[in-house]
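[step 3/7] fold_predict: job queued, chain A
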Amino acid sequence: MADGPLLAQLHFGREDAERDVQDGLLLRGGFLPNAAYRGALSGRKMLIIGRKGSGKSAICMQLKADGVGHYAATELIPPDETAGEEIRRFELQGLPGDSAKALIWRYLFAVYAARHLVAHAKDAHGRRPDSVKALARFLKQNGESADGRFGDRLAQAARGLQTSLSLEAFGFKAGLDLAQAPVSEGAQATRQLDVVEQGVAQAFRDLGCGTPGAGGAAHGPLLLMVDQLELVWSAEADSNSMVIGLLLAAKHASSLYGCAVRVLLFLRADIYDSLHFGEGDKFRGDELRITWTEQALRDLALARARASAGAELTPETLWGDLFPAAVEGEETATYLFRRCLPRPRDAIQFLNLCQETASLIHGRDRITEGDVVQAGRQFSDWKLKDLALEYLVAHPFLKHLFPLFQNTGYVVTRAVLGTRFEAAAESLHRLFPAYAEALTVPGVVDILYAVGFLGVRRGNDVVFAGGDDLPAQFHETEFHVHPCFRAALGATSAIDLRHFEIAAAIGRVVQGGNQGGFNDGAFVTTRSRDHRLIQELRRSCHSILAQTSRAVSLAQGAQDEITQQINRVLDEVNALRPGAGSAYDLEDRVLTTAHYFDTLAAQLLASGLDDSTGAGDVVRRVQEEARRLRRQSDGSYGSSGSSAGP
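[step 4/7] structure written:
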């Protein structure tokens, strides 16, 4: 039997890879190399896709640690909230949203590569060709040579692409010595970026980086990684364009820089799967999805237990001594991993909770069956809440579906679910009118299966989403609530012979909660129609203000007047609150604002403010936003392919 200190030492790590690295557990053997890690390390895959908590950041952190010998350098690009907002709002006249946002990602990759080359040329090659010296001058002239807040640097880069970069280092005067004929913002930004990228590519060639036999084969490529994009993503057109632009830019960089640079993207599966764009099929060969089996989770648990409690720890000691051999008649490891979603974060949380329940709460020197069961109830409550929060952006109504499965059997047929849903549908549609098309029985089944809440009976097996499994088919009629959520819902037996209380369920659907502590209604109207319309009004104002600030040839007084008028509209928009009742009708407000924008554009033209004064782009932006607001008032919301640009 294990003694007290061994259980006290046992720890399965942190829920996030960053703190795991800080604590040292990840680097002491707590990381389990898997197919996704091997694909990323080998360079064969560019997209590592997985659910929240599936280990994407752990792979990223491990690659940074393992980079010596494999890469010339590793850089992690952190899209914080400020940077994310800059990218989402980035627009260029003449380019669709996806293409415009691809340019700013391409610029970021070029700057990271240039900064790497300036240091790398001297440290690794002992020389600085003229092309590298030009990069050093370019970085200095554009304020990119010194470290600073990523968001501030990105904002500066965006302004440079939207107006003009300093390209004297490459032999070009301001404005790129363009022909006298006027060009769009998008065309000018593209031409500026081409100069910068060609300068970077030339420096790689001059140093021989990525070219075997030319002096660069002694080291690997520069590795650029983008992780945790979900921190700045929302289910809006601008956010989808931000991600699509990243994909396009990564593909472009890989082609342009060849073997000298590798770009590796870590994306959440729900974000990636929500994207729809014409070139999506070109990324299939670059994808690698993270999947976890029960055996892989067992291996991970043992590796982390050994990293904390000692390398000599055996599976028999872990699963037969520190943990009980069985729980409720089921082998313990199987019991644990069946009751969490198949991803490391959930497994780590459940295992640590068992250890803390035994060691800290009850003061034991081993974990008992009762400790596991007690921990399981709390863990189930956590996971039900976490599931709603995980998909809050994409499916804000998810929390409001859980009461349909509360205090009943965890097996439910399509017919029974249809009866329950029919009674609650009116309330759900009232709360979430923008999602009415998805809030049908087939739609609810598809969503609950996709997020892992429901499994489907196929033959003698119950299949839960993951890997390459088919979505729930229309002819499939039997569904099972995942064991992870059953305790929190009070659905611990397969069937429940008690009558399902329709009225009570409707009340809980409206509240968005279930008994037992899941009654927070803080986001009842999140992403409702009112919220969306207010966001669209705010976006239009910001778009016009941004275009006005870029009109460098427009008279300052005219700029100030336009800015003042749009800020008045924005102040009124910011005072609006979703669900404020009959005090105002937001659809009328949207149409009124669109009419005002039309009037403003006409007034500007009548005042002689056209292309000749530098106001042409502003007038067109005002007109475009007026048209877009009218479309939004009809309930037509854009997808990843939409853009505020022409």
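[step 5/7] annotate
The two ends are 72 Å apart (CA to CA).
Residues 48 and 266 are 5 Å apart (CA to CA).
exit 0
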